[in-house]
Every structure is written in C-alpha cells, then in structure tokens.
Amino acid sequence: MKTVSAVIFAALFAVGSVEAFAPSSTRSSVVVGSKCSTSTSSPIILSSTVDDKTEVRDYFNTEGFSRWNKIYSESDEVNKVQLDIRTGHAQTIQKILNWIDDDGNIKGKSVCDCGCGVGSLAIPLAQMGAKITASDISDSMSKEAARRAKELGIRGAKFYTSDLESVKGKYNTVTCVDVAIHYPTDKMSEMIGHLCSISTDRVIFSFAPKTWYYVGLKKIGEFFPGPSKTTRAYLHEETAVRKALQDAGFEIAREEMTGTNFYFSRLLEAKRVKK
Questions:
Q1: How far is it, in rounded angstroms, from Cα 267 to Cα 257?
Q2: Cβ density class 124-161: b for 16+ within 10 Å, e for less
C-alpha cells in the first residue's frame, strides 16, 4: 500500500521546485563566489493558505530535502519510481536548455529561477553565461544549489531562500518549473501574474495539467494514505494557465509535454507582447 501511495501521490508529479509557498517574513541569500550573505524582510504577500506554506516549507527542509536531493542527483539510493521521476524532470530541464541553446542569446542575460530546488536548471543556465538569481522555499534546497554551483566553479550566481511573492526586480527571463503542484487553483492567476510582472521578455512555466486521467490517478492515490503523502498536490486547467499568461500580456511561443510512467508536466514558454 505504501508503494501505491508513493507512486500516485508523491511520485506522480515531479516536485523539483517548491518555492511557491514559504513564510513571507524571512529572506536569506548566498552569492556563489562571494563572502557576503544578506537577510531582509519581505513585505509582499499574495493571499494563500498558510497550512500549505507550512507543510511545504517544513517537508522540504527535513525529510523531503533528503529524498528529493537524492532524486535530483546521481545517487544510487533511489527506487524505480524515483528514478523514473529523475528521468522525467531531467527531460523537462533539457527541453528548456534546448530552447535557450537554439536561441543562442542567453549569455549576459538575467534569469530569475523561482523555485530552483537544488539548481537543476539554474546551474546549467549559469554555465551557459546567464546572470542567475534563484530562490526556493527551502533553505536546505537553496543552500544545496549554492553548494553545487560552487563545486562546479560557478561564480556570481545568487541563491536565496524566499517565497515567490517576495521575489522582486526585473529579469529578461523568469522560470518556474514544477512549482505549481503546490499552488492552490484559485491562486494560480495571481501567481502567474506575479511571475510575469518581474519579466521583461519571457516566462518559462511548467505545471501538472488537470485532465480526467491525471485526476483519476490522484483520486486513487488518496485511498492509500502513507508517509509519502506529505504535501497537498494541485492540478491546473491548461486553459486557465494560458489565459493567465495572456491576461498578463504574454503569448505562447513554444510548448512541450513530458510524460514518463510517474512524471507528467506541461511546459510553456510565453513571451511578452511588444506594444
């Protein structure tokens, strides 16, 4: 029973990035290659459920960090389901990198990776020459991302602990990959609107699509409670996501769908409509 629960509820969706929910009162940062770290308050808050924030933050700072850090690494300490998720998430990341490589103009451009996890996307983008600012709800995750970047000799990339609502500034590209699974449906438009508000050119966004098949699998998983069911999971109507991007002044430029046995993620690239 535990295996079924893990497969349907925890392993069905790749939760590589969990930045969407976090306490809004703290914000810490580490600049790779720098001796300084900073801490400031974060006043911007979207109305959301505190219980969701607490669950996600606590999980990915403790048991969740240990589990997902292994999944997003080359560790052999993973089961077949976790290995499948690793494969699916890696495919999504590679599709983004292929888009950016095809464009051939990322060097020197600013990228804000909201929900960076252990740096699966932020680190290769930094290696491609992008100016990286990356955040995650989990202090453990953001510090691990900074550690990995430093180990690879990356300097100047900034990794910090923050909620999505507290991310400020203007960036050429804003990415948010596999974070929406933790974001309530009724807050999706606000979440996408905020991501778009800090992007000058492009938003790259992924989410678990709400289809009859995925909804059915999720409902089956709810019959088998177990230790893997640690955080809530939200599926989202693709039409609603596309409308939120359009309402924010963006249009879809490219799209992909990644589906393995236990990982399902719709990937959209939206570019700001020039007036």
A1: 6
A2: bbbebebbbbbbbbbbbbbbbbbebbeeeebeebbbbb
**pLDDT tens track for 74-87:** 899 999 989 999 99
Cα(43)–Cα(75) distance, rounded to whole angstroms? 39
Report yes or no: 80 and 250 within 8 Å, Cβ to Cβ. Answer: no
pLDDT of 251-260, one tens digit each? 999 999 999 9
d(CA 228, CA 71): 14
Q: Is 239 helix (H, G, I), strand (E, B) or coil?
A: helix
Let me know: does 160 contact 36? Beta carbons within 8 Å.
Answer: no
* Beta-carbon-side half-sphere exposure of residue 194 (alpha carbons within 13 Å): 18
Distance CA 230, CA 59 (A): 7
Q: In 8-107, which ranges are continuous DSSP H helix? A: 50-61, 63-71, 80-103
pLDDT at residue 212 tops 80: no
Beta carbons of 28 and 134 less than 8 angstroms apart? no
